[in-house]
């Protein structure tokens, strides 16, 4: 097994916006998103759109939500994003219409190559298809697609694509037997 050598790590991440834009977003995120104040969802939606996110109508965004890069976020109509959801969207995150991302779910588009001494960064997009539910404290890994009308049960660790009309459960998440 290779040994990682973090002193050699160099990020290859294209941040997708200028440092100035990113710093401005950090301030807005701290004031309007992370704090547990009950700002109306329309305020959060407006800020996301201002910073380049595509956000549909009827979207509910609760307090404590942490989004890395709004310019890499695409949200359909009538989506609910619960308290303390974290989106480490180093790559695109697409949440289609009529989806629910519940409290403390973590959508993570980035990881590292443990088999390389340089600990190379790897990013892959995440897609949550129409009518799906990522329940509380579920983890969705880079490159995963959650098929339409599917559910990731609370606490599940979703490392692979979820077929349409499927409920997955566990660590690693597997289809729930009836």
Automatic annotation (TrEMBL):
Keywords: Membrane, Transferase, Transmembrane, Transmembrane helix. One of its GO terms (cellular component) is cytosol. InterPro entries: Hexapeptide_acetyltransf (IPR051159), Trimer_LpxA-like_sf (IPR011004). One of its GO terms (molecular function) is O-acyltransferase activity. The chain crosses the membrane at residues 20-39. It comes from the Bacteria. Gene3D superfamilies: Hexapeptide repeat proteins. Belongs to the transferase hexapeptide repeat family. This is Colanic acid biosynthesis acetyltransferase WcaF. The lineage of its organism: Bacteria, Pseudomonadati, Planctomycetota, Planctomycetia, Pirellulales.
């Amino acid at each position: 097994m290779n040994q990682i050598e973090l002193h050699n790590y160099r990020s290859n991440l294209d941040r997708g916006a200028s440092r100035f834009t990113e710093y401005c977003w950090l301030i807005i995120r701290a004031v309007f998103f992370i704090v547990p104040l009950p700002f109306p969802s329309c305020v959060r939606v407006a800020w996301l759109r201002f910073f380049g996110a595509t956000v549909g109508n009827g979207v509910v965004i609760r307090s404590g939500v942490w989004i890395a890069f709004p310019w890499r976020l695409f949200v359909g109509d009538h989506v609910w994003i619960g308290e303390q959801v974290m989106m480490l969207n180093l790559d695109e995150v697409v949440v289609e219409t009529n989806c629910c991302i519940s409290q403390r779910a973590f959508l993570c588009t980035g990881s590292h190559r443990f088999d390389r001494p340089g600990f190379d960064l790897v990013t892959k997009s995440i897609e949550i298809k129409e009518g799906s539910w990522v329940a509380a404290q579920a983890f969705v890994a880079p490159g995963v697609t959650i098929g339409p009308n599917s559910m990731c049960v609370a606490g599940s660790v979703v490392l692979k694509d979820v077929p349409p009309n499927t409920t997955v459960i566990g660590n690693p998440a597997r289809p729930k037997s009836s």
